Automatic annotation (TrEMBL), chain A:
Similarity-based family: Belongs to the class-I pyridoxal-phosphate-dependent aminotransferase family.
Source organism: Gadus morhua (Atlantic cod)
Name under which the protein is recorded: Aspartate aminotransferase
Gene Ontology MF term list: L-aspartate:2-oxoglutarate aminotransferase activity; pyridoxal phosphate binding
Binding partners and assembly: Homodimer.
Name of the gene encoding the protein in the UniProt record: got2b
TrEMBL record, chain B:
Single GO term (MF): L-aspartate:2-oxoglutarate aminotransferase activity
Summary of subunit composition and partner proteins: Homodimer.
Domain of life where this protein originates: Eukaryota
EC number per UniProt: 2.6.1.1
Residues covered by the Aminotransferase class I/classII large domain: 29-395
Miscellaneous remark of the record: In eukaryotes there are cytoplasmic, mitochondrial and chloroplastic isozymes.
Protein name: Aspartate aminotransferase
Gene Ontology cellular component list: mitochondrion
């Protein structure tokens, strides 16, 4: 609770013109938003916005999936009402959301020992999870994030009353996964702490463990008795294959971890602003799942009562209509492929420019983001001299790269790194 | 595997319990008067035609689904504030409000509660009217505030306890937060009269309290948008820098689309900017940015003159049907031969009616007549139709004679 300073107290004795918010400071600007705003002001016709965390087609335009348009048409034809969903959201969505992540043949689904609730996209899911852990997790308050992690993870857990710690993850020397560093740090995490794992397409680095590395992580996490929180924001979007991208999640469950899981449909279904996501708790049995569900409802009700219907109806229609599901799989594959192609073209372009640096990581990294390895000064030059906008950590969104501008990008990156 | 501390089964939601029991009942005459959503005279959910028209306009544009900003759809925010404060509001002219799109009324209240918890320098106490909407309590509690109450409903008159309210408010410590329902008080349907609002305003000013208005029923109460916003606008004119939650769930029938707004009336535009920046920092780790669909619909309606007119007519229509049901219920009770005073059924306003029934009477009404309502005697007038109001009157009379 902030203390009122004496001058403010005396000011508040006067009623008229009293300021309740005189002590409210201007908050720091959002770093990523700052990138977009500077980009908007730039008049250079060759400018590139590589801060954007949303998919773009090869013309650099936002992409609404055709399966989404088809689903919308089906929904519109039904002229459904707008009655409140229940607190946990659209049941058909929840079922298919869990099935997508866990696999249709999952023992968890058969035994009904998961509770899956509709959430406000990935952020809403993570926050519900964080709040749930804060209220019900009997272990330490610490949540271990990979270093680095998505910026918003930190305030999500902090504002929910958890404390943040980290384990080594990204190796700047290789622009790859610091496997030994991760295992070393994880081995020291106190029992029953929460560990956050990115299921695929790690944000912001694009660096994912290989399957044999995931296995070692799973064994160690089991040994340390840690509570696993999976963040899966890019299922399908990483490799182009839904099941491949969910492999780590499903492996951990098979290995006996009762995980909590956040899912987002912002990227893989392009439903960004519709806010579609899911939060799952894998429990011991169906009875426990019922208890957990009851507590999730009590937690959710005073945050937003019940989730928004539109996006969930679209996602559910796609997941539950075989023809649309096929179209969707093809479109996700297409988006992932375009990203992969841009990576290949960027790496080839850098070679062509004559760069002698190792750019293998551009191809090895996966998903929307690429941790280039550029230093802040180099990033600054790239922005100032070439109007290429990205975050200071050297992260670029491959979604902002097109066959039309990848050559320009290669030239710029080479210029600031040669 | 790791064992999460295994939580106990939580208590069932009281209102949900009503609906679930209703579903199981096979009596063809059963009535669900727990539902807090408008129903037409056939007892069916009602999607406004202005909403359908807006949806068609939006669909034709084939817009993308890019993220809204953290504070939501700008056109919606502007028109949402204009609807509440009035087009000629000095607050809007000077830009000294910040209005952000929220996840309906609950989302707005929670953002407000979180904001107060983080930035309000005064006491942690939020004073709710007694009774208030059940969800107000966990909203403020989970945000870190503490709850207190001031007298509001007078069970003796089934009306407003004006002297009790003033007496309690006069004792509220300075700079505490006081929650006021702008119109159509939930759950009682009892609203202060304008001259009573004036006394409340003067006293709140004297006590230097931070006013939090909850306006979930603008237009839905009297049928008139401006009339229902009168208290909010009066308080602002009187110099209260209020915070305000708005919902479009009922007045636009957008329930499941989750459309609402949260407004902070500041000293000036500079302060509004600072407050905005902090609201964004608060919202981002809750849900990043709000859902677009409902806000696009509401914004289209508010900003398209023909649709706006249609909307005003439909809101008026919904409010009128409720008012008619009140009149028919009161007349029906008289016709049944009831000697009790049922004036409050007509005097109360909005979706809900605090009948004055005791728990035992409510139980009989449910068991013997399959009329479902909450234990506090609250009925949703939305669940009453010209087809069943007679049956309801007979039931209420039977358990109260």
């Amino acid at each position: 609770m902030t203390l009122l300073c004496l001058p403010c107290r005396s000011l508040n004795v006067l009623f008229h013109g009293v300021s309740w918010w005189g002590g409210v400071q201007m908050g720091p600007p959002d770093p990523i938003l700052g990138v977009s705003e500077a980009f908007k002001k730039d008049s250079n016709p060759k400018k590139m916005n590589l801060g954007v965390g949303a998919y773009r087609d090869d013309q650099g335009k936002p992409f609404v999936l055709s399966c989404v348009r088809k689903a919308e048409a089906l929904i519109s034809a039904k002229q459904m009402d707008k009655e409140y969903l229940g607190i946990t959201g659209l049941a058909d969505f929840n079922k298919s959301c869990a099935k997508l992540a866990l696999g249709a043949d999952s023992e968890v689904l058969k035994s009904g020992r998961n509770i899956t609730v509709q959430t406000i996209s990935g952020t809403g899911s993570l926050r519900i999870g964080a709040n749930f852990l804060s209220r019900f997790h009997g272990g330490p308050r610490d949540v271990y994030l990979p270093k680095p992690s998505w910026g918003n993870h930190t305030p999500i857990f902090k504002d929910a009353g958890m404390t943040l710690k980290a384990y080594r993850y990204y190796d700047p020397a290789t622009c790859g996964f610091d496997h030994s560093g991760a295992l070393e740090d994880i081995s020291k995490i106190p029992e029953q702490s929460v560990i956050m794992l990115h299921a695929c397409a790690h944000n912001p680095t694009g660096v994912d463990p290989r399957p044999e590395q995931w296995k070692e992580i799973s064994d160690l996490v089991k040994k340390r008795n840690l509570l696993v929180f999976f963040d899966m924001a890019y299922q399908g979007f990483a490799s182009g294959d839904i099941d491949k991208d969910a492999w780590a999640v499903r492996y951990f469950i098979e290995q006996g971890h009762n995980i909590v899981l956040s899912q987002s449909f912002a990227k893989n279904m392009g439903l960004y602003g519709e806010r579609v996501g899911g939060f799952t708790v894998v429990c011991n049995d169906a009875e426990e799942a019922k208890r957990v569900e009851s507590q999730l409802k009590i937690l959710i009700r005073p945050i937003y009562s019940n989730p928004p219907m539109n996006g969930a109806r679209i996602a559910s229609t796609i997941l539950n209509t075989p023809e649309l599901y096929s179209v969707w799989l093809g479109e996700v594959h297409g988006m992932a492929n375009r990203i992969i192609k841009m990576r290949e073209q960027l790496e080839a372009g850098l070679k062509k420019e004559g760069s002698t640096r190792d750019w293998q990581h551009v191809i090895d990294q996966i998903g929307m983001f690429c941790f280039t390895g550029l230093k802040p000064e180099q990033v600054e030059r790239l922005t100032k001299e070439f109007s290429v906008y990205m975050t200071k950590d050297g992260r670029i969104s491959m979604a902002g790269v097109t066959s039309g501008n990848v050559g320009y990008l290669a030239a710029g990156i080479h210029a600031v790194t040669k």
